[in-house]
Amino acid sequence: MTPTLVRHQSRTASAPSAGTTGRARDWAEIQERMLVPLVEAAYERLDVGPATRLLGLGCGSGLALLIAASRGAAVTGVDRPERAARLALARERLVPETGRDGATGLGASRLVTGTPADTREQGRPPYNLITAFEPIGCAAGDTEGLVSTLEAAVALAEHGSAVVLAGWGPPERCATSAVLRVATRLTARLNEAPRWRPSARDDLEDVAARAGLKPDGSGRVACPFGYADLDSAVRGLMSTGAFDAAARATDQAQVEKELIEALHGHVRRDGTVWMPNVFRYLIARTP
To answer: Is residue 76 classed as helix, strand or coil in its secondary structure?
Structure first.
């Protein structure tokens, strides 16, 4: 699969707030697919297939799980309660019939609300692959909680299992970095709001070391963000949650206005929006 221009999404005057069904659907239909090249590169390198028992941390609406399941893997996804709307969409994709694990042609699939410990189930074999595809290295504090989550997940995995971490590449190779800085500018008055920061070369290695993991290879993947028009770009970016604090500090209309201004330099002649980006993945091993 390769990144595609998403179809037009008409935008209302007041876009849905984070955690709502509308925002979750914007994520699933517009934004989530942008990281498919990264996911596929990691799966290809690890030869994900029928022998894989995968635990996806922060699985959201489940596209990365669906890709693994289509390769025959047995997948379990877990995410926080505040992302219940995304998990509901993941269930539509992976567990379409009540009481049935997996969909036709896919490996067994489970989706859990809570923490990695909540995925523990009597009689199930341990995981041999853990993934955390939500990229770090863009906002200050965006690794907060990740180390403890990884430690909890590692306790459920086999010795030597692979763990995949993802992060933003160098800012100079990520056109979207400048757009994300809009959030920092608008939230300057809020002390608790996350601040944009340039990604550091060893962000992923630092997280792995703090979680007691041993690095075992890495790679960089081009993941351009492509949208059919400005409306779709705004909806997709807003669905990430990166601009929620900015909306609280100002208002929804102001955030959308400044986003559109920041995006204008990336609008092509046909009206599509295209932002080249590079993301990085790290493969580490459990003790």
So the answer is: strand
Residue 82: how many CB atoms within 10 A of its CB?
A: 11
Q: Do the bridges between strand 157-168 and strand 273-275 make them parallel or antiparallel, or are there none, so unpaired?
A: unpaired
- Rounded Cα distance between 38 and 54, Å, is 16
- Which 8-state DSSP code applies to residue 104? T
Query: Tens digit of pLDDT for each residue in 152-177?
Result: 999 999 999 999 999 999 989 999 99
Q: Please identify which residue in the block is written with the tokens 């492509």.
A: 226
DSSP string, 10-74: PPPSSPPPTTSHHHHHHIIIIIGGGGHHHHHHHHHHHT-STT-EEEEET-TT-HHHHHHHHTT-E
Nearest to 234 by CA among 198, 275, 280, 187: 275
Question: What letter does residue 139 receive in the DSSP assignment?
Answer: B
Alpha carbon distance 213, 52 (integer Å)? 19
pLDDT in tens, 216-243: 999 999 999 999 999 999 999 999 988 8
Give the helix/strand (H/E) hosting 154.
helix 146-154
Would the CA dihedral through 15, 16, 18, 24 be positive or negative?
A: negative
Residue 116 has what pLDDT? 97
- For CA atoms 120, 208, 280, 80, the dihedral sign is positive
Angle between helices 36-46 and 63-70 in degrees, nearest 10? 40
